[in-house]
Amino acid sequence: QVQLKESGPGLVEPSHMLSLTCTVSGGSMTTNDYYWSWIRQPPGKGLEWIGYISSSDNIAVSPSLRGRISISGDTSKKQFTLQLSSVAPEDAAVYYCAQWVVDSGYFRQWGQGTLVTVSS
To answer: What residues pair up with 84 in beta bridges, in sequence order?
Structure first.
């Protein structure tokens, strides 16, 4: 059973960069069956897909965040990372990492989420 856990700062200053890491345990990141994904949920709003990275380093990101988002992975460490530049108050959210099943099209596992606050 794959488990995911997000880590990173809970507080980021406006205009600074947010960096979050998701650590995968209980399974491999090298299979092509999954996309390793980031999703966020601002307070009082719905889930917003951010992007994903595959085991072969294919990356897709939300058009609304393109230019500010960087997603990378390290399969040897079983981690993948999200970097969001020029953070603004509207980027405050609970950030989740999740395992997307490519063939079936659903999120199989989620991390518990990490709350990111944007404030000086």
So the answer is: 18, 69
pLDDT exceeds cutoff 90 at 54: yes
- The token pair at 114 is 């990490």
Check whether 27 has a pLDDT greater than 90: no
Across the chain, mean pLDDT equals: 96
Of 114, 120, 108, 117, nearest to 8 (Cα)?
A: 114
